[in-house]
């Protein structure tokens, strides 16, 4: 979990772990409530009879322990829900910043302030493949492939990694075609041919 100091950003995986922990706590609370229900008591019934003697029809220790555990777990649940909320806020804030950055970059590009440099060229496109269906063409110069661009591209393994992690999800691909910038939506997926792109 990322701390407010920001040692590392919150990821979707962090949120999923928090939600899993929340579900576990809720299951434990439910189990303790069921135990109390079997004993015929809830959280507030007195554990002494009319003459202030411990009730003989229930296991007092077991009931008190269950009540105590429910209260502790409810406190843990409340704290965990606060963490989930903060984590979701951080994720959404980061997504909002990214969108604003993307829009600013798009605006800068639209104003012709920067002609991006390509880092790869499409040599072949197999007919009927995901690449072909998306509209990629031979000799397209790749400027951006998902998160890969001229600034972080090292070798074709970078693209292979993005493709593997994006199977079934659309990727934004930007190419230069005949001197014009073209955006293509490419969804890597299994098909009759080799690989996820073709």
From TrEMBL:
Answer whether the UniProt record assigns the keyword Chaperone to this protein: yes
What range(s) does the PDZ domain occupy?
A: 108-179
Biological processes per GO annotation: proteasome regulatory particle assembly
Keyword Chaperone annotated? yes
Write down the superkingdom of origin: Eukaryota
What Pfam families does the annotation carry?
Nas2_N, PDZ_6
User: How is this protein organized at the quaternary level?
Assistant: Interacts with PSMC3. Part of a transient complex (modulator) containing PSMD9, PSMC6 and PSMC3 formed during the assembly of the 26S proteasome.
Q: Which family does it belong to?
A: Belongs to the proteasome subunit p27 family.
Per its database record, what is this protein's job? Acts as a chaperone during the assembly of the 26S proteasome, specifically of the base subcomplex of the PA700/19S regulatory complex (RC). During the base subcomplex assembly is part of an intermediate PSMD9:PSMC6:PSMC3 module, also known as modulator trimer complex; PSMD9 is released during the further base assembly process.
- Its name, as the record gives it, is 26S proteasome non-ATPase regulatory subunit 9
Which species is this UniProt entry from?
A: Pampusana beccarii (Western bronze ground-dove)
């Amino acid at each position: 979990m990322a701390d407010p100091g920001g040692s590392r950003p919150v990821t979707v995986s962090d949120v999923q772990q928090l939600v899993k922990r929340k579900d576990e706590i809720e299951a434990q609370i439910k189990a303790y409530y069921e135990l109390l229900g079997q004993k015929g008591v809830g959280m507030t019934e007195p554990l002494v009879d009319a003459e202030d003697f411990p009730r003989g029809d229930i296991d007092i220790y077991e009931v008190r322990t269950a009540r105590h555990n429910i209260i502790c777990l409810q406190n843990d649940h409340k704290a965990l829900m606060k963490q989930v909320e903060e984590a979701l806020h951080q994720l959404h804030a980061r997504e909002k910043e990214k969108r604003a950055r993307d829009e600013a970059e798009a605006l800068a590009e639209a104003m012709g302030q920067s002609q991006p440099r390509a880092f790869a060229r499409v040599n072949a496109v197999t007919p009927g493949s995901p690449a072909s269906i998306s509209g990629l063409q031979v000799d397209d110069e790749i400027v951006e492939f998902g998160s890969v661009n001229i600034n972080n591209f090292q070798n074709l393994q970078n693209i292979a990694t993005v493709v593997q992690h994006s199977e079934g999800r659309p990727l934004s691909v930007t190419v230069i075609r005949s001197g014009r910038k073209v955006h293509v939506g490419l969804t890597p997926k299994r098909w009759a041919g080799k690989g996820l792109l073709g």
